[in-house]
Amino acid sequence: MPADDETFFQLLQKAGxxxxxxxxxxxxxxxxxxxxxxxxxxxxxxxxxxxxxxTGPYATMHTGSYMTDEWEKKxxxxxxxxxxxxxxxxxxxxxxxxxxxxxxxxxxxxxRKTVEYIEQYKSEKPMCLFVGFGGPHDPWDAPGEYATxxxxxxxxKPIPVSPGISSLPEFIRSxxxxxxxxxxxxxxxxxxxxxxxxxxxxxxxxxGKIMQAFASRxxxxxxxxxxxxxxxxxxxDHGLIHKSVFYESSVxxxxxxxxxxxxxxxxxxxxxxxTIDVFPTLLEAAGCAPSRRCVGRSLWPVFKNPEAPLRxxxxxxxxxxxRRMMLRSQRYKYAVDEQARGYMLFDLQNDxxxxxNLIASGKSSVLEKEMREALTKRLIESQYTM
Length: 386
Prior knowledge:
Elements: H1 8-14, E1 18-24, H2 40-45, E2 50-54, H3 66-74, H4 77-89, H5 106-120, E3 127-132, H6 170-173, H7 183-186, H8 189-216, E4 225-228, H9 248-251, E5 255-258, H10 278-285, H11 300-304, E6 314-320, E7 322-328, E8 332-336, E9 342-347, H12 365-381
Parallel strand pairs: 1-2, 1-3
Antiparallel strand pairs: 4-5, 6-7, 7-8, 8-9
């Protein structure tokens, strides 16, 4: 993240807030052999007064943090590393309990440090606290009782692989979206999904404890909570695991907000929102001036009227091997590669499970032209270039 990028933390600081980050972040590369405390100056410059950072699951193998310092004292870090080395050999198909006790698992560590921060907070300033749980995330390593909390036999079946893959042009079949995992991985789908649900349950537990910590301070009813995620998980849908594809299982994420007296409880909306819309929403909630660089749209019109339109299109981008972009309306989804070739077009109204790529039908030229024009317009509006 460039040093001159403006963050909502910086703007909230100027508005009198104390800002804090606990848990995982991705503002910079987590280098092998480094310790995250070496980057705290960088994090402070991003607008954070307090930093207690951890890495994501895989970076934890090779990057030090306050969490791994604690693990080393307990003799746990090497156990964690060895477990991950063995999982790598299984190419993502292994679902078994973590060797770490529940109380030492990364999500428990982040949750515990968050509760401690809330309990010990003494500043008179209002608080902006970002909590970054690493889970739920692959690998499938829920700890202790969370690894057996859900019965694999009762796991919902994955969305099937599209029957028309073989008829797609070769350049489309070469995309990550169509690179099916080995049968040995997909056969383990019930265990993978059950383990993932256990990891969700552990994060839910700590979410509740964090809420209780705020309640104990008497702050819960004056608190705006935003619960969100950066990506979904395929969980063997379409013959895939992990992320970095444009299927709904990967791109749809939670976005739930709670603010008693300000946001009507129990309300949902079909409005198309993007992750970047959280930025201006927080600024408006805090009474801050709009950011000079934010291209997101505040969600407040939707809070006032769930039927209000927010966007006609959602834009998505993936940089994994190659660069790809997606445009999604309420009905259609279209994706292009870095050569600007369309390779995915779905009618989500008539094909919600994304089984029939319309580009292969040869009948999508008019629709694809409309989608390409809409994508180009959106990129220009965002001052964005391919």
